[in-house]
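Table S7 (text form). Paired inputs.
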Amino acid sequence: MSWQMAAVGALGGLQYQAQGKIGKYNQSVSNRNAAVLEGQAKQLEQKAEFDIAQFEKNFSKIEGETIVSLAKSNVQVGSGSSYYIELSNAIEAELQKNLIDYNAKVASANKMEEANFARISGVIARNEAKMAQIGTIASTGTSLLSMSQGSFGTKSYNQGVSGSSKRYFTSNSAYR
C-alpha cells in the first residue's frame, strides 16, 4: 500500500467520523428545540389558567359594580330585568373563559406539533449524515480500488508484451 492510498484511507475515515458527529449534533439541536417548544406549550396552558383567573377577578368587579348601579336605581336585584342582565353576563363570562381555554389549547397543540416536527427533523438530519457516511465509504473505497488497479493494471499490461516490442512500451526511446 502506498502512502497515497494510506492518506486517502485516513482522510476517508476522518470524514466518516466528522459526518457522524455532525449528524448527532444536528439531532441533539433538534431535540433541544423540541424540548423548548414543549416547555412553551406548558407555559401557554399555565397562562390560560392565569388569564381565566384574571378574567374572573375583573368579571366579579364588573358584576359588583352592576349590582351597585342597579340598587342605586331602586331595581330589585335578582328579579326581572336585573335577573336577565345577571344571567346574560354569566353566560357571556362562561363563553369568554371557554374561549380563553380553547385558544390556549390550540396554541399549545401547535407548539407540540412544532416539537414533534423538530424531533422528526433531527431524525432526518441523523439519517442524512448516515447516508453521507455511506457515500464517503463508497467514494473512499472506489478511490482506493482505482489506485490499486492502476498500479496492477500497468504491470499486467506490460507482462503480456514480448521481448523487442516490450521496449516500446516501457522505454522513452520508443520512437528512435
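Next pair, protein 2 of 2.
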Amino acid sequence: MVRTPSFCENRSTVAKTAFDDLDLQIIDGLAEDGRRAFTDVARDLGVAEATVRARVARLQRIGAIKFVTDTSPHQLGLLFAYLGVKIVGTDTRRAIDAICKIPEAVYVIECTGSYDVLVEVVARDGDDMLRLIHEEIRGIRGVGNVDSFMGLRIAKGTFRYADMGRTIDRREPHEFSR
C-alpha cells in the first residue's frame, strides 16, 4: 500500500512538484500492495523496471509517497473515531503540534469547514477513548469544541489516488501541492 505522508510529517513543506501520468500509474500499481515487485509493475505498464525503481525513489525522496502497513483497527480489537476539533485563539499551529504528539492520534488533517482539524484516533476500549478525548485532546490549550464520530465499520478504504486526475489534461505534467 502506498500512502501519502500525513499533515504532521509535511506541515512545514508546501511545495509544488510535477507529476506525470506514469508517476500516477506507478502509484496506482503499488496502491493495494506496496510490496509488489517493481518488475511486475513495469511489465504491466510497459516500461523498464529501472524506470519504475527510479520513479519510486524520486517520489519517496520528495515525500510524495511512503510505504506503510495499513491496519484495520476493528480486526485488532481497537476502537477508532474521527474527531472534529475547533481551535480557539490565535495559536493554531501550537495546538495542532500538540495533537500530533498524541500517539493515539494516527492521522491529523488541518482543514476548512466547521472544524480546524480532523483527527483520526484509536483506543483500546470505551474508557480509553473517553480519556483520550477528555484528557488528551480537550486538555490542549487552544482546543475548543471537539465532536466525535465513532467508526463502526469501514465501508471503503483505498489509497488509490491516480484516478484523481481524470479531469486533468493528461498530456501535460501536473502540479500537485504536497
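The chain has two domains: 2-69+159-177, 79-150.
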